[in-house]
Amino acid sequence: MNSISLNKFISSKGLCSRREADKWIEAGRVTINGKKATKGNRVEPSDTVQLDGKPLTVEVETVYLKFNKPPGVTCTTDLKDKSNIIDYINFNQRIFPIGRLDKNSTGLILLTNDGDIVNKVLRKENKHEKEYVVTVNKPITQQFLKRMARPIPMLGTRTLPCKVIKINNHTFKIILTQGLNRQIRRMCEFCNYNVLTLKRIRIKHINLGELSVGAWEYISEKDVMQFRNKNK
């Protein structure tokens, strides 16, 4: 067995994502063989890694869930936030959301205890499609659809071209390969529209389907493997 990066080692224990592991390392909570660890450290098979003074030896079975998020639930693991997604689901293992949806947005969010797959899903280079159904406050015009599909200046960059399809007078479908903060809401505001409802219905090949609001179900290993292979 070769050495692996410290953040990958921690995430493989089902505790957190690699990004969260880096935060723990920076906070001085992690040691390797009794010495304070730093970002970029690697772990050998013979090394002893501890978090808050406790050895990281137990590996848990990885789980992958899809959840139909209701409005008002916050995609955070911070239990001080009374609306946090973890307490809402009340799963019997430690899990965390992959990415996020705004508190007022609804629909598909993935959760796992596999910190390794988070990068596969969120890495922008992989350009995974995310599909949403959006209702706005006034009639949708062809001009609006065309403008939304083209790059829009936002947060010091520009959105990538995307697919926008009218469903009815006030509702449209949009397919993104980006995940900028409040992207769809900001895009609509740029076009002088306000979002009334926003629901995510798909992430790459994972569809929300008929999953009830507030319900979750397991994702199959076959579907998980499709995330691991960015070419599929």
CATH class of the largest domain: Alpha Beta
| Largest pleated sheet | 9 strands, mixed
Shape: elongated
Helix content: 10-25%
Alpha-beta classification: alpha+beta
Strand content: 25-35%
Distance between the termini: 28 Å
Q: What is the overall pLDDT average? A: 89
CATH topology of the largest domain: Alpha-Beta Plaits
Q: Which residues sit in consecutive blocks of at least 5 with pLDDT less than 50?
A: none
Tell me the count of domains: 3
- CATH level-two architecture of the largest domain: 2-Layer Sandwich
**H and E order:** EHHEEEEEEHEEHEHEEEEHEEEH
How large is the radius of gyration? 20 Å
Number of helices: 7
The total beta strand count reads 17
The CATH superfamily title of the largest domain:
Pseudouridine synthase I, catalytic domain, N-terminal subdomain
